[in-house]
Amino acid sequence: MNRMLSNNVQQLLKWLALLVVFATGLWAATSWMNNPKTLPIKFVRIEGELKHINKVDVSTAISDLVKSGFFAVKTQQIITEIEKIEWVKTVRISRVWPDAISLQLTEQQPAAVWNKTFLLNQEGHIFRPKNIDIFSSLPRLEGDDAKSVLVLESLNKSNVLLKKIGFAIKALSMTVHGSWMATSSSGVVIKIGNNEPVQTINKSFRLLSVLNIDALNRITSVDMRYPNGMAVVWKEGKELMGYELTGSPLKPTNKKLNV
Length: 259
Description:
There is one protein chain. The chain is α/β, with parallel strands linked by helices. The chain has two domains: 43-107, Ubiquitin-like (UB roll), CATH 3.10.20.310; 110-234, Rossmann fold (3-Layer(aba) Sandwich), CATH 3.40.50. It is built from six helices and 14 strands. It has helices spanning 2-34, 55-61, 75-82, 148-163, 197-208, 213-217; strands at residues 43-47, 88-96, 100-107, 110-114, 118-121, 126-127, 140-142, 169-174, 180-184, 189-193, 219-226, 229-234, 240-244, 251-253. The relative contact order is 0.07.
């Protein structure tokens, strides 16, 4: 009985000894891997189709963070720091054995100028580069920052429809009260009011498309805020002409167009 108990104790002590050895080895390995001097990072590869991102700026932004080891380097901190650069959209990072990290950068693709100061990317999200003067050819959009996605979507949907009849919108704005106004590439201002913008813009230009090119070039603005018609302002003398939207597509009228 005593001999059996002694054997069990010896067996238990062996397992405890093995556990201590394993734990000690694990601790030593973890300490070695977390040591910044273990396999120090010597190379940083920056890749991607970069037009506006300066690789020197990226290297400078993470210079302190890469002074670490292959295993110890804080990849999430590096990503966070790079994402602060205005033109960076996404960052992917990977370790390259034994002494390098690879950074795959995706650049923002501007779709429009936002509120005269910022840019919108293709998804309608705002980003703030230092100089937007070189993007004067982009559409000009305005509105509350929380509505940037909606305004860009409205522009894109409108231009898809208008392309079929040879028109395009170059500026679109939405006030805090939900009132819309658009400007075509030819300079015609469309006052939309609180109507649904895409269908109203499409409707106005489909009506105007029956006019000849000379007549179109004489138009300053079109007011679509009337339930039973629209008002056109011509360049010569700022003459105002009302049109009913019933019967003939463009029927001049002297009737009062109720707001």
